[in-house]
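Fold this complex.
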Amino acid sequence: MIRLVPRTQFGFWPTVFPLLIALVLTIVVGFVVMLAMSEKPLSDIWTLLTFPWQARTASVQWGFVLQKTSYLAVIAVGLSIGFRANVWNIGAEGQFAFGSIAAFAGYLICGMPDTVWFLPVMLAFGVLGGVLWALIPAALRVIANTNELLVSLMLVYVAANVLNYVTTGPWKGDPKAGQAESDPIHHSLQIVSIIERTDFHWGVVISGGAILVLAFIVLFTIFGYSLRVAQNTPRAQRFAGFSPNMTIWLSFIISGAMAGLGGAVYLSAETGKLIQSENYLNGLGFTAIVIAFLGRLHPIGIVAAAFLISYVNVGATYVQSASGVDDAVADLVQVTALFAVLGTAFLARYRVVFGTQALLSERTAS
Amino acid sequence: MNRALTTLLASALTFGAVVATPAQAETKVGFIYVGPPGDLGWTYRHDIGRQAVEAMDGFTTTALENVPEGPEAVEAITQLAETGHDLIFTTSFGFMDATNEVAGNYPDVKFEHATGYIRAHENVSTYSGRFYEGRVVQGYIAANITESNKIGYIASFPIPEVIRGINAFMLEAKKHNPDVEVEIVWVFTWFDPAKEAAAAQALIDNGADIIAAHTDSPAPMQIAEANGVKAYGQASNMSRFGETAHLVSTVDDWDSYYVERAIAVANGTWESQDSWWGFTKDGIGGEVGMVHLADYSNMPADVMAEAKAIEAALAAGDRHSFPCPIYMQDGNLAEDCANGEAHLTDGTLLGMNWYIEGIDGTIPQ
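Structure:
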């Protein structure tokens, strides 16, 4: 006889133990996947785990990992605010794209400045663009009671088409480029690497700063406390001074701002120009949703999850380059991790009791 | 190098891993594909070339598929360099910036960029086929079998490579049938079956009875087949997609070039260069080139015979694809011809950004 009993006390182990189980499950499944996909699974798994030390240049590998981590984490931390309150913004990819578009628009509006001092303004335009794009599903939810999950998702495709429109229309750059793209922003506005020849650039630091600020507000301020309390139940929302609608507005503004910032940094650091959507967007906004849940909607967890998933992703491309194993293995590991973390989450909330003890506790409960 | 060596040693010591010393006998060749080899066109033909290298003793190959032409290309190319590849082929025009950027970071690795023109470092070569030679034969066929005198042309991007093809096609077609006209649709993609199909349908609805495409998928051929008009195969043999539509396929043939360059790296004789091979490597009947025509079909016997004769003359160097006199769209004689050249020079062809006389419309700027 096995029974699940709700926990009344939450300690360290009930929180960490399920995560450990999830980690073990993920490793086991990853191992099995590798056995199936690889001709020499043991050596490939070893490569996947230790690729920064096996590559020619360790700093290049860490650069890729940190770069990806920063984009995923900055978007995911923003999303987690809404997710805790059951406000479903799954359109971060679109807000990311619109952040890029708005940053580029700001650059044009301000007369294409050629000084690095304009960079903060350009990033602010990106934040604004992300917020504006996120306000659409929020407004439709509040005014017309539409499903914000669907609206925010659909707006991803609208944003992608806006990107395609501006790169083939008004902001079209060199037609000989072999892809639709805008002219580049001035090189002084392109974020540079901290360690030369790696992707560890100042954008990683900017994103990291934004994550820290948001994490501090959520964890250590009264506003953040009210937000967290408000998110638990509608009743608590009223006690905390938030109306349900206010929660929706705040969730979308914060997540849109973070995704928009990510998009502006991406424009400045990675491409230096807008490019047609299929070559510009690579699903960071969608992966960030997975990251938010892998990190249990907690800032520290999210950064850790973003790091782990980025590590596996970069490693998978490395293993593919080194021994030809398809890097789809990274997607499989990611999905497994998500299922494992969500699947074991109940262990944090329930105790598993066996045999007569189960009956006893049931009797006590009733 | 020292740093790489130390890193290798460090990892071997720290983790007790058995790190294989890079045996010089084995040359590692990497490929970056913009699409899947299953695209049955552009990438498929590059993968056939890769297999020719893989088949040789002492060579191993790796291919990364579906690499977008944006910032992700840098990571993919970097990882091939980081994993000890000696020679890396990046097989799409859009990898030009990424290839040169990564090449600057790995001076001991050789890079080969297909269809590009920038060689920013000593370790970068560029290569492409004179695909326009196939367009000459296509233009001849079109001039002789079209009934509506209207050709539909699906163009990808307004780069010299594509414009050259349109010009070669129309130059030859006009010679044999002055009434023939071309309608060009720019789709701004290399591979998008849905977009290509929509463009083909629009051209056919507008009266075209022959479809030429400078995109990679067999979709235009399938649309031509469904509408009972004719089309050419692009990049690979597409005859099976158009039983009654298929006229001839221009097939990319990278095998001999890839094998030659891989051997050059293994022998230490590799040098930065630009290679441009047509039906034959030297253009005068020598070794196999980078372009060949496959499966002439669905045309009268006399047209087919003459088309094959043109192909043979181009391969042997008996004639050129762009013989003077050539007049530009604005009516002026092309500069090379005015300078007394017998045909347009390679320099002019590589930078071609104008239409010949007889093509309506403007090139997107």
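The CA atoms of residues 256 and 287 of chain B lie 9 Å apart.
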